[in-house]
Design a protein that fits this description.
One of its GO terms (molecular function) is RNA-DNA hybrid ribonuclease activity. By secondary structure, this protein is an alpha/beta fold. The chain has a single domain, classed as Ribonuclease H-like superfamily/Ribonuclease H (Nucleotidyltransferase, domain 5, 2-Layer Sandwich), CATH 3.30.420.
């Protein structure tokens, strides 16, 4: 069972991102402050949930959270500052947009760039340990998926409505065949899908 938050003394926001490993599209991040003793039956790490579960939980989180915010850093900025810094920047933007200022931050992962003077703790696999980080993972994931599904109509051959910009074989093959779109991260390498096969022979 997931705990509500990392600590109880200060008002805490959980933060997580989605889309770090993608070849295309922005990286999204969310920050969520949940009520004390908050309980949501299926709330868990977004990767452990189905698409429909995430959609349902997003509505609940956005309705019942003390405060929540989602922000993004686009592919152009990612190429300029690198994906790690872009992930931190997306979280900073989300925290800044919160209608209630948190006094503490719990961050999914093992690294973070300090935001203002708010103390923080990094928690490896925190989205599977704390509800506020799990909630942030769901918002970041669902908002990003929505964005990728919307732009998929512009560039149907990449099949972003299915792969959401991740480097699947279909996506990589299309990128090599049709070239990169304006949404692609040019600093990310699109390797031929056959390379892995040949390297294993």
């Amino acid at each position: 069972m997931l705990l509500n938050c990392y600590q109880q003394e200060f008002l805490e926001a959980g933060c997580d991102e989605a889309g770090r490993g993608c070849l295309a599209g922005p990286v999204f991040a969310a920050a969520v402050i949940l009520p004390p003793d908050y309980i949501a039956g299926e709330l868990n790490d977004s990767k452990q949930l189905s698409h429909n579960q995430r959609k349902k939980l997003r509505l609940i989180i956005e309705r019942e959270a003390v405060a929540w915010a989602v922000a993004a850093v686009d592919n152009i900025e990612i190429d300029q500052i690198n994906i790690l810094n872009a992930s931190f920047l997306a979280m900073h933007r989300a925290i800044k947009q919160l209608q209630v200022q948190p006094q503490y931050l719990s961050i999914d992962g093992n690294r973070f760039k300090k935001y203002a003077d708010i103390p923080h703790t990094c928690v490896v696999k925190g989205d599977g340990k704390y509800l506020n980080i799990a909630a942030a993972s769901i918002l970041a994931k669902t908002h990003r998926d929505e964005f990728m599904e919307r732009i998929a109509a512009e560039y149907p051959h990449y099949q972003w409505q299915q792969n959401k910009g991740y480097p699947t074989e279909v996506h990589r093959t299309a990128a090599l065949q049709f070239g990169l779109s304006p949404y692609h991260r040019k600093t990310f390498t699109v390797s031929p899908p056959q390379l892995k096969l040949f390297s294993e022979i």
